[in-house]
Amino acid sequence: MFINYLNKFLKPYSSFVISLSGGLDSMVLLHQLIKLKKIFRPEISLRVLHIHHNLSIQANDFVQHCIVICKKWKLNYKIIYINVPNKRNIEAIARDMRYTALLKELQAHENLVTAHNLNDKCETFFLSLKRGSGPSGLSSIQKKIVFKNGIILRPFLNFSRDQLETYAKLYKINWIEDKSNKNIYFERNFIRHKIIPLLTNRWPFFLKAISRSASLCQQQEILLNQLLSHKLSGLIQKNGSLYYIPFMKMTIIECKFLIRRWIYIKTGIIPSYNNILHIYQEIIHSKNNANPELKIKNFVIRRYRDFIWLLPYYSSLKHIILPWDNLKKPLILPQNLGIISINNEIQQTFIRQPKKHETVSIRFQANGYFLFENKSKKCKLKKIWNEKKIPPWERSRIPMLYYNDELISIINFINTKKSIIKTENLSFKIQWKKNIINS
């Protein structure tokens, strides 16, 4: 029953990496993949990844079990260790970290295969229902998900946990039961042990019905994407920002869908209902002189002029002071911002060298009024940023050259009159070479 479906489902692919936990589901999947290779497709490649979460007292037992199995079947395997922070939403954090680690390990043309089954799909449906999710969330676990660096395949979503256990017992497959799976403190376990048995005892077909509803939600989501994809592509700029002015003439339903889809395309994250509502009400419709923002995981949503931007989140640099004691050596900037170096070949204005009593440093903040080159009056740095149309979030990430506590240069942009040279041979040019990721 399993092998024929597996052969058909995996036919377009030939290179597989299985996420092996050592539990029932993944052990059955491994048995099936080995069987598939022996009987139908000897040309396929197969290797094993195991994630050690360091969460369970059984974690090392799972590792040893997987190693024994891999050695028995002469399979290439790797154990990946991750440290999950002990926070309230530890299940979600562990899941995200697990997938990040697994996808990172995929090589070219490899496909990740996981053993999620029908019960997992239904449990996820209930968890999404509890969160008040829409059709996207209620679509639950998908059989195939395409990421930038690989594809996740889930061939067991049509089969229940009972079916997998029957198969395992028939073929005398050994697996380890995770004792924490019985702890109903965890939401998924509560649904698994308390909710679903109650429903399936009353309606034996209930799991299949949930799966069908999830599939219908997915179909609706696909159709919405198809219908609105052209409109969204017309709003997304080459730099990835979203032109939001047309939102003023759209319905709130349409706006919220376009926002959610844009975020998903950019990050793979499905934002919550409250996140989308915040973006619509507090970012798009905030006052013109406001600088609203919203942090979503490792990203931040910001608005500037007629566009909203989705950017990587970085901690503030405003208190950072980087000494530059040896000007002959390039200075590496934090947060992958690039390097500062002396380069007299570039098209920049010469600035004076520091005097003996002046210490040189790089900073990312300047308060007060300054007299800049080509300016007759002192002004705040904000005026320069506005003239050069520098978005607010970039301003605090632009390196500034200081001699003692005097601002000398906003590197690559403009110098203050404190930089004026008196002797030609006591001057140089400074270059900020950005890393590509930040340019």
Q: Give the distance, in angstroms, between the N- and C-terminal Cα atoms.
A: 54 Å
Task: Provide the CATH superfamily of the largest domain.
Answer: HUPs
Q: Look at the structure and give the mean pLDDT.
A: 93
Oligomer: single chain
Mind summarizing the main beta sheet?
6 strands, mixed
Number of helices: 13
CA-based gyration radius: 28 Å
Structural class of the helices, strands and pairings? alpha+beta
How are strands sequenced across the largest beta sheet?
3-2-1-4-6-5
Tertiary shape: elongated
Percent of sequence in beta strands: 15-25%
CATH-scheme architecture of the largest domain: 3-Layer(aba) Sandwich
Q: What low-confidence regions span 5 or more consecutive residues with pLDDT below 50? A: none
For this structure, the CATH topology of the largest domain is: Rossmann fold
The CATH class of the largest domain turns out to be: Alpha Beta
> Number of domains in the coordinates?
3
Subcellular location: Cytoplasm
Enzyme class: ligase
InterPro entries: Lysidine-tRNA-synth_C, Rossmann-like_a/b/a_fold, TilS/TtcA_N, tRNA_Ile_lys_synt, tRNA_Ile_lys_synt_N, tRNA_Ile_lys_synt_subst-bd
Catalytic activity: cytidine(34) in tRNA(Ile2) + L-lysine + ATP = lysidine(34) in tRNA(Ile2) + AMP + diphosphate + H(+)
How would you sum up this structure, described in words?
Its EC number is 6.3.4.19. It catalyses: cytidine(34) in tRNA(Ile2) + L-lysine + ATP = lysidine(34) in tRNA(Ile2) + AMP + diphosphate + H(+). It is found in: Cytoplasm. Residues 360-432 form the Lysidine-tRNA(Ile) synthetase C-terminal domain. With 439 residues, the chain is an alpha+beta fold. It has 3 domains: 2-213, Rossmann fold; 236-312, Chorismate Mutase Domain, subunit A, CATH 1.20.59; 321-438, no CATH class. It has helices spanning 2-9, 24-39, 59-72, 90-105, 118-130, 135-138, 161-170, 187-202, 206-235, 252-267, 273-284, 381-387, 392-395; strands spanning 15-19, 45-52, 76-81, 111-113, 144-147, 150-153, 242-243, 293-296, 299-304, 307-312, 321-323, 331-332, 339-342, 351-352, 360-363, 369-370, 379-380, 400-403, 406-410, 414-415, 427-428, 430-433. The protein has a 6-stranded mixed beta sheet with strand order 3-2-1-4-6-5, with helices on both faces. Helix 3 links the parallel strand 2 (45-52) and strand 3. Helix 1 packs across helix 2 and helix 5 packs across helix 8. The longest helix has 30 residues, at 206-235. The chain is elongated, with a radius of gyration of 28 Å.
